[in-house]
Amino acid sequence: MVGILVAVFSYQWITDSSRRVERGIEESVVFEVRALLAETLALKDLEIVDPVDSNREAGKSYVYRTATGWQVSGHYRRQEEDPWQQFLMNLDEDVTLLNLLVDDPEIVEQARVNPALEVIL
Length: 121
What we know:
about 120 residues, alpha+beta, 6-stranded mixed β-sheet
C-alpha cells in the first residue's frame, strides 16, 4: 500500500507542469540579470556564476520571487585570475533593476554616480 502511495505521489510530482513553467520564468529572469549586470557595471567579458550556470568554486547563487519582483544573487569576475565578487540584484515585476549590491572595491567610483548601485565593503 505504501509503495502505491509513493508511486502515485511521485507521478503527480513529476508530471506537475507548474514547476517547469516557473523554472522557465526564473531562467528568463536570470538571462536578463546577466545583461543588466554587465550594463550596470559597464564591464565587458564578465564571467558570471548565477542560478542557471552554477560553479561550486565561486559559491551558491539563487533566484527568488519576492512580493514586489525578483532577487537574484551570484558571482562575477573580470578575468580568470581575479577573485569572485558577490552580487545581489533586486528587480521589480517587469525585471527592471531596482538596486544592485556588489562586493567589489573597484566599483566604488561608479556607485557614487549611480544610485541603483551599492558597494558593500
